[in-house]
Please model this.
Amino acid sequence: MADYDPRDLNKQLADISKQPEPELRGSPITPDRYFSKTFMDEEWDKVWTKTWQIACLERELQNKGDYTTTSLGRERILCVHGDDGQIRAFYNVCQHRGLELMKDESGNAKRLVCPYHAWAYDLKGTLKSVPDEADFVQGSPCGKLNLVEMQCEVWAGFVWYNMDDDCVPLREYLGPIADQIDTYPMTDFRRTHWVTVEGDFNWKLVQDNFSESYHVPFVHPGAVHTLEYGREGCQFDHYPQGHCRMLMPGGGPAAALKGGEKETLEKMAGEMEFWELNPDDYRGGRTCNIRKDLQKAKRKLGAEKGYDFSTYHDEQLTDNWHYTIFPNLSFSLKPESNIWLRARPHPSDPEKCLFDMWFMVLFAKGQTEYYSYVMGETISTEAEVPHMQGPADQVTTGPAIDEDLEIWPQQQRGLHSRGYKRDYLASQESRMRYFHETLDTWMAR
Model:
Protein backbone atom coordinates (compact mmCIF):
# COMPACT_ATOMS: atom_id res chain seq x y z
CA MET A 1 0.00 0.00 0.00
CA ALA A 2 1.23 3.51 -0.79
CA ASP A 3 2.27 5.70 2.08
CA TYR A 4 -0.66 7.54 3.66
CA ASP A 5 -0.79 11.22 2.78
CA PRO A 6 -3.34 13.31 4.72
CA ARG A 7 -3.40 15.82 1.88
CA ASP A 8 -5.28 13.22 -0.15
CA LEU A 9 -8.26 13.56 2.16
CA ASN A 10 -11.08 16.07 2.03
CA LYS A 11 -11.55 15.71 5.78
CA GLN A 12 -10.21 18.13 8.35
CA LEU A 13 -7.21 16.79 10.25
CA ALA A 14 -6.10 18.05 13.64
CA ASP A 15 -3.61 20.86 13.90
CA ILE A 16 -0.50 19.26 15.41
CA SER A 17 1.72 22.34 15.25
CA LYS A 18 3.55 23.32 18.42
CA GLN A 19 1.92 26.28 20.14
CA PRO A 20 4.02 29.24 21.30
CA GLU A 21 5.12 29.05 24.90
CA PRO A 22 3.07 31.40 27.09
CA GLU A 23 4.61 34.07 29.26
CA LEU A 24 4.09 32.72 32.77
CA ARG A 25 4.03 35.05 35.75
CA GLY A 26 5.56 32.53 38.13
CA SER A 27 3.15 33.48 40.92
CA PRO A 28 3.43 31.26 44.01
CA ILE A 29 1.07 28.31 44.18
CA THR A 30 0.66 28.43 47.94
CA PRO A 31 -0.84 25.52 49.89
CA ASP A 32 -3.74 27.51 51.36
CA ARG A 33 -5.62 27.42 48.05
CA TYR A 34 -6.04 23.69 48.56
CA PHE A 35 -7.73 23.96 51.97
CA SER A 36 -8.97 27.52 52.46
CA LYS A 37 -12.76 27.75 52.80
CA THR A 38 -12.59 31.40 51.69
CA PHE A 39 -10.74 30.43 48.53
CA MET A 40 -13.27 27.65 47.92
CA ASP A 41 -16.19 30.06 48.22
CA GLU A 42 -14.59 32.47 45.75
CA GLU A 43 -13.99 29.59 43.33
CA TRP A 44 -17.67 28.79 43.49
CA ASP A 45 -18.76 32.34 42.64
CA LYS A 46 -16.12 33.09 40.01
CA VAL A 47 -15.27 29.75 38.40
CA TRP A 48 -17.80 26.96 38.92
CA THR A 49 -20.85 29.11 38.17
CA LYS A 50 -19.18 30.55 35.04
CA THR A 51 -17.53 27.64 33.23
CA TRP A 52 -18.82 24.90 30.93
CA GLN A 53 -19.28 21.50 32.57
CA ILE A 54 -20.38 18.06 31.37
CA ALA A 55 -23.64 16.70 32.75
CA CYS A 56 -23.92 13.33 31.02
CA LEU A 57 -23.53 11.44 27.78
CA GLU A 58 -25.80 12.42 24.91
CA ARG A 59 -26.73 8.75 24.47
CA GLU A 60 -28.26 8.79 27.99
CA LEU A 61 -30.91 11.17 26.64
CA GLN A 62 -31.84 9.44 23.39
CA ASN A 63 -35.61 9.39 23.80
CA LYS A 64 -38.21 12.01 24.60
CA GLY A 65 -38.71 12.14 28.33
CA ASP A 66 -35.26 10.75 29.21
CA TYR A 67 -33.63 12.66 32.03
CA THR A 68 -30.44 12.58 34.08
CA THR A 69 -29.40 14.32 37.27
CA THR A 70 -25.93 15.28 38.43
CA SER A 71 -24.28 17.56 40.96
CA LEU A 72 -21.68 20.29 40.98
CA GLY A 73 -20.76 21.48 44.44
CA ARG A 74 -23.90 22.67 46.17
CA GLU A 75 -26.07 22.58 43.03
CA ARG A 76 -28.13 19.77 41.52
CA ILE A 77 -28.62 19.80 37.76
CA LEU A 78 -31.39 18.16 35.73
CA CYS A 79 -31.06 17.48 31.99
CA VAL A 80 -34.11 16.49 29.97
CA HIS A 81 -34.83 15.42 26.39
CA GLY A 82 -37.91 17.44 25.53
CA ASP A 83 -40.94 16.59 23.42
CA ASP A 84 -39.53 18.90 20.77
CA GLY A 85 -36.29 16.92 20.58
CA GLN A 86 -34.23 19.58 22.36
CA ILE A 87 -32.05 18.74 25.36
CA ARG A 88 -32.29 21.28 28.17
CA ALA A 89 -30.58 21.77 31.52
CA PHE A 90 -32.36 23.06 34.64
CA TYR A 91 -31.64 23.60 38.28
CA ASN A 92 -33.14 20.47 39.82
CA VAL A 93 -35.39 22.23 42.29
CA CYS A 94 -39.15 22.62 42.53
CA GLN A 95 -40.31 26.24 42.52
CA HIS A 96 -42.90 25.62 45.25
CA ARG A 97 -40.81 25.12 48.39
CA GLY A 98 -37.36 24.21 47.14
CA LEU A 99 -37.46 20.42 47.18
CA GLU A 100 -35.08 18.52 44.92
CA LEU A 101 -37.38 17.74 42.01
CA MET A 102 -36.08 14.49 40.48
CA LYS A 103 -34.20 12.28 42.92
CA ASP A 104 -33.18 9.40 40.63
CA GLU A 105 -29.94 9.52 38.68
CA SER A 106 -31.78 8.82 35.44
CA GLY A 107 -35.19 7.84 34.15
CA ASN A 108 -37.95 8.63 31.71
CA ALA A 109 -41.00 10.73 32.45
CA LYS A 110 -43.85 12.39 30.58
CA ARG A 111 -43.87 15.13 33.18
CA LEU A 112 -41.47 16.20 35.93
CA VAL A 113 -43.48 15.83 39.12
CA CYS A 114 -42.37 16.99 42.56
CA PRO A 115 -42.77 14.16 45.10
CA TYR A 116 -43.76 16.59 47.88
CA HIS A 117 -46.89 18.37 46.60
CA ALA A 118 -47.14 17.01 43.04
CA TRP A 119 -46.39 20.22 41.21
CA ALA A 120 -45.97 19.01 37.61
CA TYR A 121 -43.72 20.54 34.95
CA ASP A 122 -43.61 19.62 31.28
CA LEU A 123 -40.36 18.61 29.57
CA LYS A 124 -39.65 22.25 28.69
CA GLY A 125 -39.74 23.13 32.39
CA THR A 126 -43.09 24.92 32.28
CA LEU A 127 -45.30 24.43 35.33
CA LYS A 128 -48.49 22.85 33.98
CA SER A 129 -50.53 21.77 37.01
CA VAL A 130 -50.68 22.08 40.80
CA PRO A 131 -53.17 20.60 43.27
CA ASP A 132 -55.82 23.08 44.44
CA GLU A 133 -54.80 25.63 41.83
CA ALA A 134 -57.61 28.03 42.84
CA ASP A 135 -56.35 28.16 46.45
CA PHE A 136 -53.42 30.50 45.66
CA VAL A 137 -54.53 34.01 46.58
CA GLN A 138 -51.78 35.52 44.44
CA GLY A 139 -53.08 33.67 41.41
CA SER A 140 -52.27 30.38 39.79
CA PRO A 141 -48.52 29.64 39.65
CA CYS A 142 -48.93 27.62 36.44
CA GLY A 143 -46.94 29.02 33.57
CA LYS A 144 -45.29 31.54 35.90
CA LEU A 145 -43.16 29.57 38.36
CA ASN A 146 -41.29 27.49 35.82
CA LEU A 147 -38.05 25.58 36.25
CA VAL A 148 -34.98 27.77 36.00
CA GLU A 149 -33.12 26.88 32.83
CA MET A 150 -29.39 27.24 32.24
CA GLN A 151 -27.25 27.31 29.12
CA CYS A 152 -26.98 23.86 27.52
CA GLU A 153 -25.19 22.54 24.44
CA VAL A 154 -24.45 19.11 23.01
CA TRP A 155 -20.98 18.43 21.59
CA ALA A 156 -18.71 15.39 21.10
CA GLY A 157 -21.32 13.04 22.52
CA PHE A 158 -21.63 14.96 25.81
CA VAL A 159 -24.31 17.24 27.25
CA TRP A 160 -22.71 20.45 28.57
CA TYR A 161 -24.19 23.13 30.80
CA ASN A 162 -23.19 26.52 32.14
CA MET A 163 -24.88 28.41 34.98
CA ASP A 164 -23.82 31.78 33.56
CA ASP A 165 -26.53 33.22 31.31
CA ASP A 166 -23.92 35.48 29.72
CA CYS A 167 -21.35 32.78 28.98
CA VAL A 168 -19.68 32.47 25.59
CA PRO A 169 -20.80 29.57 23.35
CA LEU A 170 -19.16 26.24 24.09
CA ARG A 171 -16.95 26.09 21.00
CA GLU A 172 -15.68 29.60 21.65
CA TYR A 173 -14.90 28.53 25.22
CA LEU A 174 -12.99 25.45 24.00
CA GLY A 175 -11.11 27.27 21.27
CA PRO A 176 -8.89 25.31 18.84
CA ILE A 177 -9.02 22.08 20.81
CA ALA A 178 -12.65 21.53 19.78
CA ASP A 179 -11.61 21.05 16.14
CA GLN A 180 -8.82 18.72 17.24
CA ILE A 181 -11.08 16.52 19.36
CA ASP A 182 -13.60 16.47 16.52
CA THR A 183 -11.16 14.35 14.51
CA TYR A 184 -12.04 11.49 16.87
CA PRO A 185 -15.48 9.88 16.32
CA MET A 186 -16.48 10.92 19.82
CA THR A 187 -20.18 10.10 19.49
CA ASP A 188 -19.27 6.48 18.68
CA PHE A 189 -17.23 5.94 21.85
CA ARG A 190 -19.15 3.86 24.39
CA ARG A 191 -18.73 4.21 28.14
CA THR A 192 -17.64 0.86 29.58
CA HIS A 193 -16.61 1.99 33.10
CA TRP A 194 -18.30 4.64 35.26
CA VAL A 195 -16.73 5.29 38.65
CA THR A 196 -17.12 8.12 41.17
CA VAL A 197 -14.68 8.21 44.08
CA GLU A 198 -15.32 10.20 47.25
CA GLY A 199 -11.88 11.69 47.72
CA ASP A 200 -10.16 13.24 50.73
CA PHE A 201 -8.34 15.81 48.65
CA ASN A 202 -8.96 19.14 46.96
CA TRP A 203 -10.13 19.00 43.34
CA LYS A 204 -7.11 20.99 42.10
CA LEU A 205 -4.71 18.17 43.03
CA VAL A 206 -6.43 16.08 40.36
CA GLN A 207 -6.00 18.72 37.68
CA ASP A 208 -2.40 19.35 38.78
CA ASN A 209 -1.65 15.66 38.37
CA PHE A 210 -3.10 15.38 34.88
CA SER A 211 -1.31 18.55 33.82
CA GLU A 212 2.15 16.95 33.92
CA SER A 213 3.89 13.70 33.03
CA TYR A 214 6.84 14.27 35.38
CA HIS A 215 5.33 11.78 37.84
CA VAL A 216 4.72 8.97 35.34
CA PRO A 217 7.83 6.76 35.83
CA PHE A 218 7.48 6.89 39.61
CA VAL A 219 3.72 6.61 40.13
CA HIS A 220 3.02 4.54 36.98
CA PRO A 221 6.17 2.45 36.46
CA GLY A 222 4.31 0.04 34.20
CA ALA A 223 3.31 2.80 31.78
CA VAL A 224 6.89 3.44 30.64
CA HIS A 225 6.81 0.14 28.74
CA THR A 226 4.13 1.42 26.34
CA LEU A 227 4.19 5.22 26.54
CA GLU A 228 6.62 8.10 26.18
CA TYR A 229 6.52 10.54 29.10
CA GLY A 230 9.82 12.44 28.84
CA ARG A 231 9.94 16.17 28.20
CA GLU A 232 12.08 15.71 25.09
CA GLY A 233 9.79 13.08 23.57
CA CYS A 234 6.42 14.74 24.25
CA GLN A 235 4.87 17.94 22.95
CA PHE A 236 3.25 20.34 25.41
CA ASP A 237 0.83 23.01 24.17
CA HIS A 238 -0.93 25.88 25.94
CA TYR A 239 -3.99 27.62 24.48
CA PRO A 240 -5.24 31.16 25.22
CA GLN A 241 -8.52 29.83 26.63
CA GLY A 242 -6.58 28.17 29.48
CA HIS A 243 -6.71 24.63 28.09
CA CYS A 244 -3.65 22.49 27.40
CA ARG A 245 -2.58 19.55 25.27
CA MET A 246 0.12 16.93 25.70
CA LEU A 247 1.05 14.68 22.77
CA MET A 248 2.59 11.50 24.19
CA PRO A 249 3.98 8.93 21.74
CA GLY A 250 2.60 5.46 22.43
CA GLY A 251 2.91 2.01 20.98
CA GLY A 252 6.27 1.29 22.49
CA PRO A 253 8.62 1.94 25.40
CA ALA A 254 9.77 5.34 26.63
CA ALA A 255 13.14 6.42 25.26
CA ALA A 256 14.68 6.55 28.73
CA LEU A 257 13.71 2.96 29.56
CA LYS A 258 16.63 0.58 29.89
CA GLY A 259 15.64 -3.03 29.38
CA GLY A 260 12.00 -3.98 29.87
CA GLU A 261 11.60 -5.73 26.53
CA LYS A 262 9.71 -8.64 28.11
CA GLU A 263 7.26 -6.32 29.86
CA THR A 264 6.64 -4.23 26.74
CA LEU A 265 5.87 -7.24 24.60
CA GLU A 266 3.64 -8.78 27.27
CA LYS A 267 1.63 -5.57 27.66
CA MET A 268 1.28 -4.98 23.95
CA ALA A 269 0.87 -8.56 22.72
CA GLY A 270 -2.94 -8.37 22.48
CA GLU A 271 -2.95 -5.15 20.46
CA MET A 272 -0.08 -6.28 18.23
CA GLU A 273 -1.68 -9.62 17.41
CA PHE A 274 -5.02 -7.96 16.65
CA TRP A 275 -3.19 -5.83 14.08
CA GLU A 276 -1.38 -8.91 12.76
CA LEU A 277 2.06 -8.13 14.15
CA ASN A 278 4.09 -10.92 15.76
CA PRO A 279 5.55 -9.85 19.12
CA ASP A 280 8.43 -12.30 18.65
CA ASP A 281 9.62 -10.23 15.69
CA TYR A 282 10.46 -7.40 18.09
CA ARG A 283 12.73 -9.25 20.46
CA GLY A 284 16.42 -8.47 20.62
CA GLY A 285 16.19 -4.70 21.00
CA ARG A 286 13.57 -4.03 18.32
CA THR A 287 10.67 -2.81 20.51
CA CYS A 288 11.43 0.74 19.37
CA ASN A 289 10.04 -0.26 15.95
CA ILE A 290 6.60 -1.24 17.24
CA ARG A 291 5.11 2.27 17.09
CA LYS A 292 5.73 2.89 13.39
CA ASP A 293 4.82 -0.66 12.45
CA LEU A 294 1.55 -0.40 14.37
CA GLN A 295 0.73 2.83 12.56
CA LYS A 296 1.33 1.15 9.19
CA ALA A 297 -0.73 -1.90 10.17
CA LYS A 298 -3.64 0.19 11.40
CA ARG A 299 -3.58 2.30 8.28
CA LYS A 300 -3.53 -0.80 6.09
CA LEU A 301 -6.02 -2.96 8.01
CA GLY A 302 -8.24 -0.39 9.70
CA ALA A 303 -11.20 -0.59 7.31
CA GLU A 304 -10.94 -4.39 7.14
CA LYS A 305 -11.04 -4.54 10.95
CA GLY A 306 -14.08 -2.27 11.09
CA TYR A 307 -12.44 1.09 11.90
CA ASP A 308 -12.52 4.38 10.02
CA PHE A 309 -9.19 6.06 10.72
CA SER A 310 -9.48 8.53 7.86
CA THR A 311 -9.57 11.60 10.13
CA TYR A 312 -6.46 10.56 12.08
CA HIS A 313 -2.87 11.53 11.57
CA ASP A 314 -0.57 8.51 11.61
CA GLU A 315 0.59 9.60 15.07
CA GLN A 316 -2.97 9.43 16.39
CA LEU A 317 -3.07 5.73 15.54
CA THR A 318 -0.71 4.97 18.44
CA ASP A 319 -0.28 8.06 20.56
CA ASN A 320 -2.02 9.44 23.62
CA TRP A 321 -3.41 12.92 23.04
CA HIS A 322 -4.09 14.26 26.50
CA TYR A 323 -6.20 17.40 26.95
CA THR A 324 -6.78 19.31 30.17
CA ILE A 325 -9.82 21.55 29.82
CA PHE A 326 -10.16 24.38 32.31
CA PRO A 327 -11.13 24.08 35.04
CA ASN A 328 -11.53 20.37 35.78
CA LEU A 329 -11.76 18.06 32.77
CA SER A 330 -9.25 15.74 31.13
CA PHE A 331 -9.58 13.77 27.93
CA SER A 332 -6.86 11.17 27.51
CA LEU A 333 -7.50 10.04 23.94
CA LYS A 334 -6.12 7.05 22.12
CA PRO A 335 -7.38 5.88 18.71
CA GLU A 336 -9.74 3.26 20.16
CA SER A 337 -10.30 4.49 23.74
CA ASN A 338 -10.61 7.52 25.97
CA ILE A 339 -9.98 7.86 29.69
CA TRP A 340 -12.29 10.70 30.72
CA LEU A 341 -11.37 12.27 34.06
CA ARG A 342 -12.99 14.96 36.18
CA ALA A 343 -12.90 16.33 39.72
CA ARG A 344 -15.93 18.11 41.13
CA PRO A 345 -15.85 20.30 44.22
CA HIS A 346 -17.39 19.12 47.47
CA PRO A 347 -20.46 21.16 48.51
CA SER A 348 -18.78 22.59 51.61
CA ASP A 349 -15.39 21.03 52.41
CA PRO A 350 -12.35 22.27 50.43
CA GLU A 351 -10.40 19.15 51.44
CA LYS A 352 -12.81 16.77 49.72
CA CYS A 353 -14.07 16.30 46.19
CA LEU A 354 -15.82 13.86 43.88
CA PHE A 355 -13.54 12.28 41.29
CA ASP A 356 -15.11 10.76 38.19
CA MET A 357 -13.52 8.30 35.76
CA TRP A 358 -15.22 7.13 32.58
CA PHE A 359 -13.45 4.65 30.35
CA MET A 360 -14.78 4.85 26.82
CA VAL A 361 -14.15 2.45 23.95
CA LEU A 362 -14.48 2.82 20.19
CA PHE A 363 -15.65 -0.66 19.24
CA ALA A 364 -15.05 -1.57 15.61
CA LYS A 365 -18.07 -2.42 13.49
CA GLY A 366 -19.07 -5.98 14.32
CA GLN A 367 -16.65 -6.14 17.25
CA THR A 368 -18.07 -7.49 20.52
CA GLU A 369 -14.90 -7.38 22.64
CA TYR A 370 -11.95 -5.07 23.15
CA TYR A 371 -8.85 -5.78 25.23
CA SER A 372 -7.56 -2.74 27.11
CA TYR A 373 -4.13 -3.06 28.65
CA VAL A 374 -4.84 0.26 30.42
CA MET A 375 -7.75 -1.32 32.29
CA GLY A 376 -6.09 -4.75 32.31
CA GLU A 377 -9.18 -6.57 31.06
CA THR A 378 -11.25 -7.57 28.06
CA ILE A 379 -14.32 -5.37 27.69
CA SER A 380 -17.53 -6.60 26.11
CA THR A 381 -20.14 -4.59 24.25
CA GLU A 382 -22.77 -6.57 26.15
CA ALA A 383 -21.55 -5.58 29.61
CA GLU A 384 -23.76 -3.45 31.82
CA VAL A 385 -22.22 -0.17 32.94
CA PRO A 386 -23.24 0.35 36.56
CA HIS A 387 -22.28 3.58 38.26
CA MET A 388 -19.78 2.47 40.91
CA GLN A 389 -19.55 4.95 43.77
CA GLY A 390 -17.71 5.03 47.08
CA PRO A 391 -14.44 5.75 48.88
CA ALA A 392 -11.20 4.96 47.05
CA ASP A 393 -10.62 1.83 49.12
CA GLN A 394 -14.00 0.40 48.08
CA VAL A 395 -14.12 1.04 44.32
CA THR A 396 -11.49 0.82 41.61
CA THR A 397 -10.87 3.12 38.68
CA GLY A 398 -8.52 0.64 37.03
CA PRO A 399 -4.83 -0.07 37.64
CA ALA A 400 -3.44 3.19 36.25
CA ILE A 401 -5.75 5.75 37.89
CA ASP A 402 -5.78 3.82 41.18
CA GLU A 403 -2.06 4.64 41.38
CA ASP A 404 -2.86 8.36 41.19
CA LEU A 405 -5.55 7.99 43.84
CA GLU A 406 -2.98 6.74 46.33
CA ILE A 407 -1.02 9.98 45.96
CA TRP A 408 -3.65 12.70 46.36
CA PRO A 409 -4.74 12.11 49.98
CA GLN A 410 -1.09 11.98 51.04
CA GLN A 411 -0.43 15.23 49.24
CA GLN A 412 -3.47 16.89 50.81
CA ARG A 413 -2.11 16.04 54.26
CA GLY A 414 1.37 17.25 53.35
CA LEU A 415 0.10 20.63 52.20
CA HIS A 416 -0.77 21.43 55.84
CA SER A 417 2.84 21.05 56.97
CA ARG A 418 4.63 24.05 58.42
CA GLY A 419 7.59 22.80 56.42
CA TYR A 420 6.02 23.51 53.01
CA LYS A 421 5.54 27.06 51.73
CA ARG A 422 5.11 27.03 47.94
CA ASP A 423 5.77 25.22 44.68
CA TYR A 424 9.12 24.80 42.89
CA LEU A 425 8.30 23.59 39.39
CA ALA A 426 10.30 22.25 36.47
CA SER A 427 9.67 23.66 32.99
CA GLN A 428 7.90 20.43 32.01
CA GLU A 429 5.32 21.26 34.69
CA SER A 430 4.38 24.47 32.87
CA ARG A 431 0.84 23.23 32.17
CA MET A 432 0.23 22.97 35.91
CA ARG A 433 1.45 26.54 36.41
CA TYR A 434 -0.67 27.66 33.43
CA PHE A 435 -3.71 26.05 35.04
CA HIS A 436 -3.18 27.97 38.30
CA GLU A 437 -2.50 31.24 36.51
CA THR A 438 -5.68 30.74 34.49
CA LEU A 439 -7.49 30.08 37.76
CA ASP A 440 -6.02 33.28 39.23
CA THR A 441 -7.23 35.22 36.18
CA TRP A 442 -10.79 33.94 36.62
CA MET A 443 -10.64 34.63 40.36
CA ALA A 444 -9.58 38.23 39.73
CA ARG A 445 -12.57 38.97 37.48
